[in-house]
Amino acid sequence: MSWSPAFLRRSAADPVARAVIALTAAMALVLVPGVPALVRAPVAVTFFLLAPGLAWVRSLPANGPVERAGVVVAVSLAVDVVVAEAFVYAGISGVGPVLTLLVAVVLLGLWCTTRRGPGAVGDARQAPAAVPERRRAAGSTEVSR
User: Fold this and answer.
1) SS3 string of the chain?
2) Whole-number pLDDT of residue 11
3) C-alpha triplet 98, 26, 57: angle, nearest 5°
4) Which sign does the torsion angle of CA 137, 138, 143, 145 carry?
5) Mean pLDDT highest for which of 4-8, 60-64, 69-73, 114-118?
6) pLDDT at residue 15 above 50?
7) What is the pLDDT of residues 51-94, one digit of tens each?
8) Residue 96: CA count within 13 A, CB half-sphere
């Protein structure tokens, strides 16, 4: 994985990527001993409900903000459950390893969805009118209506 300056510039310019990075950093900071539960609980719940999904769902085609929000929460919870079950079956306990793997999954999702940039072929953020033109340019024989 290459954390090139171009990737960092694209991430810094994207408000969703900035929010995911800020939420991930806040989650790491609330693990410091002495942080009150009134701060720890909302940050943890927000991280677990949004961060993995926001990182991975950005390139999926979702129609509208409600559908996208539902997919974000569903993907986040699915990633959380898979990571938790993996650690249960491996017999590893503790917050540190689990959070480390979740942060790695979130950063991998950001890297995978940001490295192409908006408008790349296969990117859901492109304009719908551009899809048939790109299919013709790619040599597709599918007829669009």
Assistant:
1) CCCCHHHHHHHHHCHHHHHHHHHHHHHHHCCCCCCCHHHHHHHHHHHHHHHHHHHHHCCCCCCCHHHHHHHHHHHHHHHHHHHHHHHHHHCCCCHHHHHHHHHHHHHHHHHHHHCCCCCCCCCCCCCCCHHHHHHHHHCCCCCCC
2) 58
3) 70
4) negative
5) 69-73
6) yes
7) 999 888 877 777 888 998 999 999 999 999 999 999 999 998 88
8) 2
Residue 141 CA to its chain's centroid (Å): 33
Q: How many residues can be counted in the chain?
A: 145
Q: What is the per-residue pLDDT for 122?
A: 47
**12 in Cβ contact with 115 (< 8 Å):** no
